[in-house]
Design a protein that fits this description.
It comes from Bacillus paralicheniformis. This is Cyclic GMP-AMP synthase. Keywords: Antiviral defense, ATP-binding, Magnesium, Metal-binding, Nucleotide metabolism, Nucleotide-binding, Nucleotidyltransferase, Transferase. It catalyses: GTP + ATP = 3',3'-cGAMP + 2 diphosphate. The structure is a single chain. The chain is an alpha+beta fold. The chain folds into 3 domains: 146 residues, Beta Polymerase, domain 2; 128 residues, no CATH class; 110 residues, Immunoglobulins (Immunoglobulin-like, Sandwich), CATH 2.60.40. 38% of the residues lie in helices and 24% in strands. It has 11 helices and 15 strands. Strand 3 and strand 4 form a beta hairpin. Helix 7 crosses helix 8 and helix 8 crosses helix 9. The longest helix has 29 residues. It is flat, with a radius of gyration of 24 Å.
Length: 422
């Protein structure tokens, strides 16, 4: 395999691994919002004559395991387990999430969207792209005087909030810290296209830990590990919690299984691009091009496809001075703001209102929607007409809305608006 370890390490250090100051900022936000949650619960208790109390909080996920990576849109996430005594909260998982949602909404009022209860956590979104997920747990003592834990999802499920962290640290130490490094790079691979529907960090972590192959060079370690993951997925696409006895799948939804299939397909395709690394006439230029095709990152060289897109975008927008175009987004059916003022990716379930005011004589206006990504497979392209149109944010990915102004059959002005949906 052609030796490009020096470049590989440079890519990992400067383009993938998140800097310490950024991790410190994430943890600062975690502490601040835990204080807000406690204050909100206190206020909720006073109004409802209840006595709900947090008995513990535990950092989880990529921040705890230090596998968080750099993202262009600053969409970093913080996972926090908040723990209650079992006899101190309702039995209904929906009721518990509603209480936490209510408590956060009381104290988190300056955010781009109100705190919202999801299936497995209550989410708090920052306008800058950060989000915090509060995963709710309950604990109870067993006959040995030890605590047992259950996670609040669609139902209560056995899960120790510290178990994954302990398991990961042990596995990572045994691999001479290589598991953490490979996970970060595999995440970078999965994040190269926002339209891809790919597995989350926990699934990738389990797969890497299961198939880690430590070699004498980091580039070889990464290659051999992802190759082993691909081969494993050839015949087995199930992923189970490594901290529980028995086969406890963490693929709870149909979408989770689709994400695994997508990972397998894309690894299969992109690994073939690396075959050149094993050819006798491989040189640095060929090796750089191969890793470019694998990671899709400009670090490895000029992005031809991106350059072509920029040229096309500029061509399509060259007559935009003849066209005034407005785009406003409605968030949660409550807040309406200019799309250009919205930071980060739009959530699903929003409405976008587009309107055009041509500055020249025209006969008709056409709007062309181009959707990308796995979720838009049955709706990749459609058209509408009129001075104003409405669209919904239905599909994750990078999309565009193109406004075309015609006089008869002649195109006289057009403009492209990018729409990124998470």
């Amino acid at each position: 395999m052609f030796d490009l370890e020096t470049k590989f390490n440079e890519f990992y250090k400067n383009k993938v691994s998140l800097f310490d100051e950024d991790i410190s900022e994430l943890r600062k936000k975690k502490r601040l919002n835990l204080d807000r949650l406690r204050d909100g619960l206190k206020e909720y208790n006073e109004e409802n004559e209840t006595d709900y109390k947090l008995v513990d909080d535990i950092e989880q996920g990529s921040v705890a395991m230090r596998t968080v990576i750099q993202l262009d849109e600053n969409e970093y996430d913080i996972d926090v387990a908040i723990v209650f005594d079992k006899d101190n909260i309702p039995e209904s998982t929906q009721k518990v999430k509603t209480i936490i949602e209510d408590a956060l909404q009381r104290k988190c009022t300056q955010f781009k969207a109100a705190p919202e209860a999801k299936t497995n956590a209550v989410r708090l979104d920052y306008a800058s792209g950060y989000h915090i997920d509060f995963a709710i747990y309950r604990r109870m003592e067993n006959q040995l005087g030890e605590f047992e834990f259950e996670h609040c999802g669609s139902e209560w499920r056995e899960r120790d909030p510290r178990a994954i962290n302990k398991w990961f640290n042990t596995e990572n130490d045994c691999s001479d810290k290589n598991i953490r490094k490979v996970i970060r790079l595999l995440k970078a691979f999965c994040k190269q296209n926002s339209g891809w529907l790919m597995p989350g960090g926990l699934i990738l972590t389990i797969l890497v830990a299961e198939k880690i192959r430590v070699e004498d060079r980091f580039d070889k370690t990464f290659y051999e590990t992802v190759k082993a993951i691909k081969e494993r997925l050839d015949t087995n696409k199930e992923v189970c919690n490594p901290t529980l006895n028995g086969n406890h799948s963490i693929l709870y939804k149909k979408k989770d299984h689709q994400k695994i299939k997508n990972l397998h397909t894309r690894l299969e395709i992109r690994l073939k691009k690396l075959d050149v690394l094993f050819e006798n006439d491989c040189d640095e230029a060929k090796a750089m091009a191969a890793w470019k095709e694998f990671f899709g990152h400009s670090f490895w060289g000029e992005d031809i496809q991106k350059s072509a897109f920029v040229q096309e975008f500029s061509l399509e927008s060259k007559n935009e001075r003849l066209l005034n175009l407005n785009a406003d987004v409605l968030i949660n059916n409550k807040v309406k703001i200019p799309l250009s003022d919205y930071k980060g990716k739009l959530p699903k379930g929003c409405k976008i209102f587009f309107s055009a005011s041509p500055l020249v004589k025209y006969s008709h206006i056409e709007w062309v929607v181009n959707n990308t990504g796995d979720e838009a497979i049955n709706d990749t392209y459609h058209k509408k007409t009129g001075r104003a149109v409405e669209e919904n944010t239905l599909y994750r990915g990078r999309h565009t809305m193109t406004c075309k102004v015609y006089e008869g059959t002649r195109l006289i002005a057009q403009k492209v608006i990018p729409v990124n949906i998470k």
